[in-house]
Amino acid sequence: MKEQPSRPEPSHPEPGPPAGSTPAGTRALLDRRVRAARARAAEGEPEAAIPPRPEGERVPSFTQERMWLVERLSDGPALYNVHEVFRLRGPLDVAALGHSLTELVRRHEVLRTAFPEKDGRPVPSVEPARPVDLPVTDLRTEPAERRTRLALDLVHSEILRPFDLAAAPLLRASLLRVDEDEHVLVVVVHHIAVDGWSMPLLWDDLSAMYRSRLEGREHGLPPSRIQYADFAHWQRSRIPATTESARAARMTTPATR
Asked: N or C: which end of the chain has fewer CB atoms below 10 A?
């Protein structure tokens, strides 16, 4: 069994996180609260009463719908790509990492939800769990002085590559082998599936899944009681759609004097 590397720490080579990211202090507070809620759930305490959506219900949240519309109208670079870049030092089991990414997408429905268009609006479609590709680019044959620059160029290219929102999953990963025991892992997720403060929770899951795979056991994470689509249905049932439709119209209509 290979030695497990320490939990990777994220780094953000240029370009940095997308504009409008949650401030660090707020993100840390939300992170603590969500982690505490997850711990309570693991101990059997009840969660907030958001009921499961009805069978066959397919509605986006208001935020997802606005994000889908803005991206559809934009012809520029990927506006809503969220990324993390990890520098991994020490032995790495690439097969175990690939398996863990697949399990992560299996666990979180929103990561494997596509948003095809119907009658001018997005219609969420949860796709079956499939293996997540983890392409590996080996830079060891390049001169040492060129590797960092090449790695940065590849990272930037991957961060800026747009997603097709009509196809799932909305998470992709790639691995750069910089040296024998040094790798760079790039994970890009579309903002329609995650937000800034929920990303650390994904890395917690990924880390637990990777460790358990190395040790030949199940990850033991508590089952998710609700999925994001349950929240989207709950939100739609509580907030009048006309209010959000008017707000979206104001956002996308050119101002007039």
From this structure: C
